[in-house]
C-alpha cells in the first residue's frame, strides 16, 4: 500500500510544491541520453516529473506507480498524453513490454522492505528490459546514516502554495530496526488547520547487498556512481540485463 504522502489526494496535490528542486533528475536525463535510449520505463513515477521530462525529448515513456492520487496529478499535467501511465507496482507492467532503460528515481528502491518484494521487483525490471538494456536507480548509503538528520528541528519548513495557503511540514524518525528506518511527516494546512501525517518505512541496504541482489536476478553491474547532487550520501547503480 502506498504511503499517504503519495496516495492521499490532498498531499499528492502539493507534493511538487513541497519539493520544487528536481535537479537530482539531471543525472538520470544525462544517462538516458548517453546510453542512446529511446524508450524508458519509470518505476515509481509519482507525479510524473521525470516521465514528462523524458517525453519532452520525444522518448517512448511508461510511468508506473501504485499511488493513484499521484498518477491523477501526473495525468493532469501538460504533455501527459505522451506518456503511458500504469497504476500498480512492478507486477502491473504488461507482459511483452521491452524498453531500453528502467529507472527508479528518488530512492524508490528503498521502499521494498522484504527480500521477496525486492527480488520480485528486480525480476520485473529485468523482464521489461531488452537484452543489454539498463536498470538505473539510487539508494542512500547506509554508512552515512542519513536518518540521524531527520528531525523536526532540522527539517521543519513552511511553504506558501498558491490556491492552498501555507503548509508546514517536517520529518521525524520514530524507529530504527536494523536496516529499516520508520519516520513520520506531519503536514499542517494552516488555512483550515488540517493535519495529515504520512508514515513511511525505508530499507537501507548496503552496496554489497544490492550488487548481490542484482547479480542474482540476471543483471551485470556496470558501475556504481556517486550521486552528483548528494555526493558521498547516495549511490547510483547502473546494471545491465545480461
Brief digest:
The protein is an alpha/beta fold and 242 residues long.
Mean pLDDT: 97
**Fourth-tier CATH superfamily name of the largest domain:** Vaccinia Virus protein VP39
Biggest sheet, open or closed, and with what strands and sense? 7 strands, mixed
Distance between the termini: 32 Å
Fold-level CATH name of the largest domain: Rossmann fold
Can you offer a commentary on this structure?
With 242 residues, the chain is α/β, with parallel strands linked by helices. The protein folds into 2 domains: 4-141 and 205-241, Rossmann fold (3-Layer(aba) Sandwich), CATH 3.40.50; 144-202. Helix content is 27%, strand content 36%. The strands form 2 sheets. It has a 7-stranded mixed sheet, with helices on both faces. Strands 6, 7, 8, 9 and 10 form a 5-stranded antiparallel sheet that branches. Helix 4 links the parallel strand 1 (39-43) and strand 2 (60-65). The two termini are 32 Å apart.
Record the SSE blueprint.
Layout: H1 4-7, H2 9-18, H3 26-34, E1 39-43, H4 49-56, E2 60-65, H5 68-75, E3 83-87, E4 99-104, H6 115-128, E5 129-140, H7 152-155, E6 157-161, E7 165-169, E8 172-177, E9 180-189, E10 194-203, H8 207-215, E11 219-226, E12 234-241
Parallel strand pairs: 1-2, 1-4, 2-3, 4-5
Antiparallel strand pairs: 5-12, 6-7, 7-9, 8-9, 9-10, 11-12
